[in-house]
Design a protein that fits this description.
This is DUF1524 domain-containing protein. It comes from Kocuria sediminis. It holds the Pfam family GmrSD_C. By secondary structure, the chain is mainly alpha-helical. It has a domain at about 95-125 and about 185-285. About 45% of the residues lie in helices and about 10% in strands. The chain contains eleven helices and seven strands. The protein has a three-stranded antiparallel sheet, covered by helices on one side. Strand 3 (about 155-160) and strand 4 (about 170) form a beta hairpin. It is globular, with a radius of gyration of 45 Å.
């Protein structure tokens, strides 16, 4: 026998409809509680989210890789800071003279002069190339104008534009006049001894004494006044020559691995601050002056 089709008026469907309605009613009664729970969770999430995310200002994804790009203000600040750092590095004083000064060993104070004897420790003028012109006369020939010589070996006359004063000083060889122009060791032999030259070999000390890099024809009276002074104790009266003078001392001390004192280094750095592009003297001083 074929069952009769389901009909809402069928008494057999009444119980089913009643049970469904009961379940639906219970579910509807539970909805407010579920919604309240969801609201609580959402509120908690909002309190943890970054302000930019909550405000809808999440950084846009970059065109490559989809990673968030930095906000415009952050990128601008970073670029500005980088440019400033680069400009600062470019503007910082830097020169061969300053670099060489930074490389010198620094002593708290000047070393001992014990054992110093200029003649015994450093020797005298030499004629290294055997051309009959000793170092003194080579420097006179290099630094004087209108140089004359009666034998091709000794300078007999000339005129010096003194680097220490800017004055023009005539030179005439003679017992009473030769001392008007003297050869100064820019790093004095006594200062060199107290700065580490005692550790040099005898041959190296003779080389130091005759090194054209360290020699200048100058006003004789100022050479005597300077004596063995270092840069923190004496500088030439001609201020425009201070940078070259200090740079020469640095070059010589670097070449022979001599020390500077802390105060000497401070004065050298102060002088070079006025000429941050000052280079070290080059080997042109060692060229044949004739």
């Amino acid at each position: 026998m074929t069952p009769a089709p389901y009909s809402p008026s069928d008494p057999g469907s009444t119980a089913f409809t009643s049970r469904r309605d009961v379940r639906l009613g219970k579910w509807l009664l539970a909805v407010p509680a579920h919604l309240a729970m969801v609201g609580t969770v959402l509120a908690f999430v909002v309190t943890l989210a970054p302000p930019d995310l909550v405000a809808g200002s999440m950084p846009a994804a970059s065109a490559v890789g989809g990673a968030p790009s930095a906000p415009a203000s952050t990128a601008t600040a970073t670029a500005t800071a980088t440019a400033t750092a680069t400009a600062t590095a470019d503007d910082a004083p830097s020169s061969a003279a300053l670099d060489a000064l930074a490389s010198l060993e620094v002593a708290a104070r000047r070393g001992s002069m014990s054992g110093y004897d200029r003649q015994a420790r450093f020797g005298d003028w030499t004629d290294a190339d055997g051309d009959c012109v000793d170092t003194r006369n080579e420097i006179l020939a290099r630094d004087l104008d209108d140089v004359a010589s009666d034998d091709g070996c000794r300078v007999t006359s000339g005129r010096l534009t003194d680097p220490y004063t800017g004055a023009s000083i005539p030179f005439t060889r003679g017992v009473a006049t030769s001392s008007d122009v003297q050869i100064d060791h820019v790093v004095a032999a006594g200062n060199a001894w107290a700065s580490g030259a005692e550790a040099l070999s005898p041959a190296e000390r003779v080389e130091f004494y005759n090194d054209p890099l360290n020699l200048l024809a100058v006003d004789g009276s100022l050479n005597g006044a300077k004596s063995d002074a270092s840069a923190d104790e004496w500088l030439p009266p001609e201020r425009s020559f201070h940078c070259e003078y200090v740079a020469t001392q640095i070059a010589v001390k670097a070449k022979y691995e001599l020390r500077v004192t802390a105060s000497e280094k401070a004065v050298m750095a102060e002088v070079l601050s006025a000429c941050p592009d000052q280079e070290l003297p080059t080997d042109h001083r060692n060229e044949d002056p004739r």
